Amino acid sequence: MSIADNLKQYKNEVESDGVKLIAVSKTQPVESILEAYNAGQRIFGENLVQEMVEKQAQLPADIEWHLIGHLQTNKVKYIAPFVQLIHGVDSIKLLQEINKQAAKHNRIIDCLLQVYIADEDTKFGLGFDEVVELLRDETYPELKNIRIVGLMGIATNTKNEKQIAIEFHELKVFFDGIKVSFFRKDEAFKEISTGMSADYKIAIEEGSTMVRIGSSIFGKRVIKHFKSNISAN
């Protein structure tokens, strides 16, 4: 099946439930993204800053770019002019940098707090208590150029669907609590980003509002090393 056919299948299934489909285009060539765009897709997710910057410059301006991978503070400035949503915010320091760079472009950048829900070692993600601590940080109310619109989580990489469902369910319960405690009057706080190709159906059942699907749409990923003009500093 073509990219357009794959995309149509997922859009019909996912969007009929009111869930946003993020086409994960990392390592995919511009031509493949354009095929998905021409088939009606507008939201694309990348996990590397330099790759997203390069593609954004070559593709239609109305694409909504989501940064779904871990974001280093020294790379925020490169995506601040255009990124629509940053999924993996895992520290007040990163949030402060996003705010700083967004202000330079007179923008408000939407962010999701990444919550650690998997039963496996990972470098990234906030514990439930750390999310509360971040939202209570005295500097948080001063950040006028960011907007926290929800939470993101990645389930354990396992075939145990019951465990995956429990992890997604716990995040939804936590989301509901955070909504009441910190965002009761904020209509923008409504997103739960969980679910990928292998577990998106479970994620939707457990309250996900956006799912990230890549290889099932685009086919096997093309491994390409993007030459970056972005320095490490």
Automatic annotation (TrEMBL):
Family of this protein: Belongs to the pyridoxal phosphate-binding protein YggS/PROSC family.
A Pfam family this chain is assigned to: Ala_racemase_N
Organism superkingdom: Bacteria
GO molecular function, one term: pyridoxal phosphate binding
Organism: Pedobacter soli
Keyword line: Pyridoxal phosphate
Ranges of residues in domain Alanine racemase N-terminal: 3-220
Record's protein name: Pyridoxal phosphate homeostasis protein
